[in-house]
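task queued by scheduler; priority normal; single chain, no ligands, no partner chains; default sampling; output format set to structure tokens
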Amino acid sequence: MRIFSKCILVFLLLISYQISFSQTLDEFIKKAEGFNQTGDVAQAATVMEEAIQTYPDNSTAYSYLGLYRGMQAGRTQNYME
């Protein structure tokens, strides 16, 4: 019984750690928008790629990544990229 209690305690600690230190999608979007405001669209796209790694089933994350990728395409001088 003691081992079971310790396992439950460790499990709860891991869950609370994950909840407290993971970023929400809104935080990813705000961070990306901050990079976009400074003109660093490539970094904004990178942030949204991280968001997709965290939230792979979220269509909003993919939409924002597409927005920033489109902005990158509009600013390029070499359209072969």
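post-processing summary
- The helical segments are 2-21, 25-37, 41-54, 59-75.
- The mean pLDDT is 82.
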